[in-house]
Amino acid sequence: MSRSTKALAFLLFSVFVLAGLAAAAQTVPVDQRMKILLRVLTYDRNFLTRADNGKLVVVVLFDPADTASAAEKSEVVAALGALKKLTVNGLTMDVEPVSWSGPASLTDALRKRRTGAIYVCGGLQGVAADVARVARESRVATLSGARDLTEKGLAVAVVLKNGKGQILVNLKTSKDEGMDLDAALLRLAEVIR
Predict the structure, then answer these.
(1) CA–CA separation, 58 vs 54, rounded Å?
(2) Does residue 3 surpass a pLDDT of 50?
(3) Which sequence spans correspond to the domains of the chain?
(4) Taken in order 96, 99, 100, 105, is the CA torsion positive or negative?
């Protein structure tokens, strides 16, 4: 077997193993999910209006009483922290974890700094409608890694579908949050109308 054939075989094996691991986890790996979600934000024609003094502020909302939610928060904050060197449409990024303690406290957290996006961790499905209402009133884009959160009223998710990453867009919600998503993105996404 030639060296290039061995390299190709190893690459194919790696892809199948990684696809199997992602499928077993039922989610897109957090580092890939964050890269895709940040890229999705660049397809929002109103993206730059979400800036706070040249920065994109991303709130990572989690339930401190839910172990899985707190773990996802840690993973998301670490993944976004690793991406802080990147600029998103010329904006640097600040990441702020915020624990859920009700709509009023979320509203206050969003107003403290002009927040451009909220990443909503799992474990908040029961309050998704409240989160969506606050985001809509504050004109802040909502992001997640869970289909059910997007179906319950959040704007954009990156989910696993048939073993591959899929962008899911709740079109009504995204518009209500002030997003104006480019048609090129919508053609690539699964759109909930």
Answers:
(1) 13
(2) no
(3) 26-192
(4) negative
**What are the strands of the beta sheet with 164-170, ordered from one edge?**
92-99, 55-62, 117-120, 141-144, 156-161, 164-170, 190-192
DSSP three-state, residue 58? strand
Name the phi and psi angles at 144, rounded to 5.
-160, 180
What's the CATH fold of domain 26-192? Answer: Rossmann fold (3.40.50)
14-41 tens-digit pLDDT: 333 444 444 445 779 999 999 999 999 9
The radius of gyration of the chain from alpha carbons, rounded to an integer in Å, stands at 17
Please answer whether residues 138 and 1 qualify as being in contact, where contact means their C-beta atoms are separated by less than 8 angstroms: no
pTM: 0.85
CA distance 159 to 14: 21
* Structure tokens, 118: 């909220």
pLDDT digits (tens, 9 = 90+) for 29-80: 999 999 999 999 999 999 888 888 889 999 999 999 999 999 999 999 999 9
The token pair that represents 93 in the structure block: 């990024």
